[in-house]
Amino acid sequence: MSRSTHAVELCALLVDETYGELTSRIFTILLRKGRLPIRLLSKHTLLNARQLRHGLAVLIQQGLVYYNQDSETGTTFYEANSDAAYGLARAGKIIGMAETRFGPAARDVVQKLFLLGNTSVSDLEAAYESKHEQHVNGNAEGSSVIPNGVNEHKASPVSSTGHLHSVLNRLLEVGFIEPVVHSMFLSPADTYNKVERGILQESFGGSTKGAKQKDDLKLRVKNQLQSIRSDREWKGKGIKRPLNGGHVNGVNGTNKRRRLSNGSSTVSSDHLYEDDGTRLEPTLIVHVNYEKCTVALRNEALAAFAKERIGEITSLIYAQGLRLLEAKIPRCRPDSAIDNVVDLPDGPMFTTKELAAALSHNVNPGTGIGKASGDQVNVRKLEKQLDARKPKSKEGEAGGDIDMGDGGSDDEPKVNGNSKLPDNDNDDDDPFADSPKPAKRPKVTFQDRLPASKTSDDRENRVELVKKHLLLLAADDSKFLRKCGNNGFGEWTCDFEFIIQKMQEAEIDAMLLENFGNSGHRLARILRKLGKLEEKKLEEAGKIKKKDVRTKLAEMQMAGLVDIQEVPRDSARTTQRTIFLWFFDQDRAATMVVQNTYKAMSRILQRLDVERRRAHDVLALTRRSDVRDLDPEVYLDVHQLNDFRAIDGKIDKLLCQISRLDGLIGLFREF
Amino acid sequence: MAGRGRGGGPGSGQLKGATWEYDASIKLESKPSDLFPPHPNLKRPAPLTKKERREINNYKNLIDQVHRGPLYTQPTKRDPNAPAKTFGEDQFNRQYGTNRKADMDPFNGVETYSMRYAPKQRDLPKLSDQPFDKSLFPEELWSTLEGTEGQEVRNHINRAMQRKAALLNGKDKDTSLKTRSVLEKIHNAIGDDDNEELDEENKDEEERDDEYDDDEIGDDYNGEQYFDNGEDEMEDGDDGGEEY
Fold it and tell me: So where are chain A's domains?
């Protein structure tokens, strides 16, 4: 995949930031020049072969470079994997996600995997064992303690080999990490060529004749590629059973199954399941799977969007629903070379019942949907509206006094909070439940329903309540969900493309508003809605003065957001007899946003470097090997500490900006 | 758009509003424009949320670990004030590849006692410190991973050295030219005659290699190695360099 100069610059900077100069020099040349053998690399980088071999070994180990050995000439070609390089910018997010879902042990394991690259299970074990020993000996050199004292974990969260195995197994099941196979080191294009050549030789005798055979060839290549990809996937069930045989009896197995069925929902319950007896093959090599992590990040972004638009509780329920879907979505964007583009009309779906069962019991679906107090609202009318579903949710939104979000405290004892499964009690570490504070005003939620719900079947009521949230999501303008069936109290699916487009629109709108003010924003929206327009029409539609329209449009044209199409009315093509149509191209705007974001990210990385160099004196102190594992407060004097705080704050801000920009890249490029 | 702005003025071939008449009060803007003019619409970013803070800490932690690990190579980048933008490969490459020891800062570069805690600067990743699965790498990198790269060359050189040493020892005992030549012949007969030339070639190669990894230039006083008495040197044999 070719990437723009800004993207290339960014990737090179990211590799430089993470793995140092040698690797980044090689990587930059590979990105710029495409695939190269060592000999040519040496020519372009002016590095000697020994340096190159060392650098390439690191790059391959970290999955940043594809290679392909040409069977005829025996030369090995290396090719940059820019997606993996970009993934480095996301490392923090991915590690954080692993933590929120599976607890500190998973965070530690994922971090180790980032650190070591493609690692076999036995090597991971060894890494942990050596670390334990070091802890016992009190040797702080190699321990994973952060020098800045951000996160004092003296003891490793992974307590035993068994624990490591079960954490790895869980990560494999969710797909955050995947087993490494040989075909992964071939770049997608090489894989395609290889498969195509193989099939050509085998079935077509070297070449194809006519369109029919060509189509046939394409189809076969596609099938083969699909099978190659499915070979890569982690088949937990197939491999686990024979491995389990010795350790685990049926009881433990079922125990595990149950946990897994809602395991994706429960958060940080892992100290209850330190070691579930799963053992992975020691030779299994794993690495972080960026594609799947992107899916999870997309779900997070969608849930955040839902939170913004509707409310916290609804967004939590939505997040859970998406997580159910996540298991069935291996990647965000299907690859046209591999996947069949004609998809089923309904993608993966989940039912209300499943969702209600999987939903964490700290999420109270009874709250979150707004209700005014009884004397303000005609209850009967409202219930009538609730029965008619679609209008209901709109009414719920439009209703004057809406209690969104802050009523949804986690530990609310009032409504339906009873737990039905015992192992679900302490998963309050939800990404969106950062501040579980009780509602400020007296709660009025579902007063009128409460008695009924207590007597009637709890579970069914919960399903009903969850369903209300789902309806609310489906009725939103952004169409968070779509109902596609009636089984299990309703089946739901998510049209990701549509909603991502909506999110992109919202983002571009926000940017327009910021950069071009109210009128620019309005003009762009008019153009988007009505298509290509003449200036006069724009004035009318936008209720803006002619002069203002003109200056604003010119300004936006300079920025590349809107443009003009000329339509001559006669063959003379004179200015007077030409229609000038303004238009606003969403795709173009999106590409521009992506490019600018890449540029901004690389500028930030460069800035980071400059700031670090300026504060080199104090940073060098914190990096000394004798104190780097201590809290800087202990050994720095006041001035140094002030300096350190200042630079640390700056670095934090810059990194935060990078991660926010990365959200944009995700939205516009990858989701 | 084209043509709309033009021709609107009183006379054609003239910019709107601007005339050729002499205006005494006119003042030209001769000041150079600001290098960093204030941004028209600059806002403070929102403060970090808890989640972001956690992610950033994760990231910083990871980067820190990587930098401590064996795979990180230190920047040798020259002039930090040089413009970040480069045009073309030549310029890009020129900014690196400097010899750290040659370009040492005479004011701060001299090692002091307190520097013994400073993290080691590495030009090549230390592959021996990390587990690798050889099968995942192309064959031409295997020797690098195992650290056996250049082993043959080194063996040859070692053998040649031994031979020389033996020769010199022999010279001490028996100085006659004849015995020496005989000895030499015997050695040649036992040893690999045809490797002799190869040795020479390889020596050259090795030497050239060593020029790049500057840790290996053996000299009697090396200020850089003041504190580490060479215990964990790069895995290359240093016997190659010493003789020259």
Answer: 5-80, 497-584, 592-670
- A458-483 pLDDT, tens digit per residue, is 667 778 888 888 888 888 877 888 88
CB nearest A514 (choices: B41, B49, B66): B41
Element (H, E) at A72: none
Was domain A5-80 assigned CATH 3.40.640.10?
no
Helix axes A161-174, A236-247, angle to 10 degrees: 160
Pairwise CB contact (< 8 Å): A60 & B136: yes
φ/ψ of residue A345, rounded to 5: -60, -40
Under-50 pLDDT residues of chain A = 1, 135-154, 237-272, 389-456
pLDDT score for B172: 53
- Of the candidates A310, A507, A273, A269, the one whose C-alpha atom is nearest the C-alpha of residue A393 is A310
Task: Give whole-number Cα distances, B69 to B20, B65, B137, in Å.
Answer: 71, 6, 20
Contact assessment for residue A289 and residue A114, using Cβ atoms and an 8 Å cutoff: no
- The reply to whether domains A5-80 and A497-584 share a CATH topology is yes
Residue of B nearest to A104 (CA): B58
Which among B58, B75, B92 has the least Cβ separation from residue A95?
B58
Beta strand pairing call for A177-179 and A285-288: antiparallel
Q: In whole angstroms, what is the distance from residue B153 CA to residue B138 CA?
A: 22
Contact A203, A319 (CB under 8 A): no
Residue A107, token pair as written in the block: 């965070």
Q: Do A659 and B45 touch (CB under 8 A)?
A: no
Across the interface, whether the CB atoms of B117 and A626 are under 8 A apart is answered yes
Compute the distance between CA of residue B33 and CA of residue A80 in angstroms, rounded to an integer.
41
The fold of the A497-584 domain, in CATH, is Arc Repressor Mutant, subunit A (1.10.10)
How far is Cα A563 from Cα A559, in angstroms, rounded to an integer?
A: 10
Amino acid letter, B63: I
**How far apart (Å, rounded) are the C-alpha atoms in residues A354 and A54?**
51
pLDDT digits (tens, 9 = 90+) for A240-259: 433 333 333 333 333 333 33
CB A667 within 8 A of CB A511: no
